[in-house]
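From the pipeline queue, job 12 of 40. The input is one protein chain; the requested action is below.

Action: predict structure.
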Amino acid sequence: MPATRSPTHKTHRRAGRPPFERIALLLQGGGALGAYQAGAYQALAEADLHPDWIAGISIGAINAALIAGNPPEHRVARLREFWETISTSPFGVPSLLGIEIKDDYTHQLVNQARAFNILLGGAPGFFKPRVPPPYLTPQGGLDSLSFYDVTPLRETLARLVDFDLINNGTTRFSVGAVNVRTGNFVYFDNTTCDIGPEHVMASGSLPPGFPATEIQGEQYWDGGLVSNTPLQWVLDSTPRQDTLAFQIDLWNARGETPRNLLEAELRQKEIRYSSRTRAATDQFKKAQRLRRAAAKLLTDLPKDLRQTPEAEMLAAAADEKVYNIVHLIYHAKNYEGTSKDYEFSRRTMEEHWKAGYYDAVRTLRHPEVLERPDGPDGVRTFDLARDGRE
């Protein structure tokens, strides 16, 4: 059965760049849920909202590489090629795209069966089971520390991503990972190092499924072990710039109280990997209010007071930059369970892609999302859960 093509309702196209110095795209980790980010990016691309800085964690790092590592006119096509490749059944099972599933219970059973296929057979172009399995492999090597081999991902990245384009600096690119030995969180950024497939893979090396990735003698695991969102990295960077940030989250921090063990497992995973995005945004808003207040206060001070050490310290932190932070958060369906981050079937991929696309289109219908904030703190946040409004 041919693959379902991505939606193409370009009614949200706009003329001219929004009045910000920088457009940032921030991509959270979340495995198979990452197709939601790809769909959201398609809507942004159709609206001519091309990011100047792309930062990602885990699957967000892979999507970031596919975007930054291709010219704008080819980015959506490369994302489609990647997601269609990895959502192909490892056992040739039909995708069931044309068959309607009417109730959540049946849909849940289908999803669980698909996820079980992934556990057994892997995802083509992404990862494959180790043979022999790690518990039959001599201890000490990387092969004994993970259930899957990610060599296919390296090959896919080499085929679909132009790393020379990433490293020429046209688009800033950052991916986060954790040093296994020190436990320190690090960002690989094309302003400070040459990015290769290993940096992207390091950001998604989630144990014990995937092995650590070695870079210059150090081993790295998935950045989501420490922080699953690059929001703070981008907002705290200096020199600061007026920023329009699209934060595309795959885990919703808000949810219902669990009623059973399976729901409890899912809820703790959602809380852990949501990385308190809203709390980080609120904290940044408060800090920016202080920075703007300091900037205003310094302009009103007499010259002799502006030259004191205390005033100079305030001046180093003060600025009057403005920020719009647009949250796009995937809201899981009732039939999705604890396996939703590794359920890579074609049917589910298409569902996630379309959800991201239409959520982004709906948000962009609100013109205030792309307008400079005029409040005292210089920061406005938008949340799709409230129909794109503040």
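Job complete. The radius of gyration is 22 Å.
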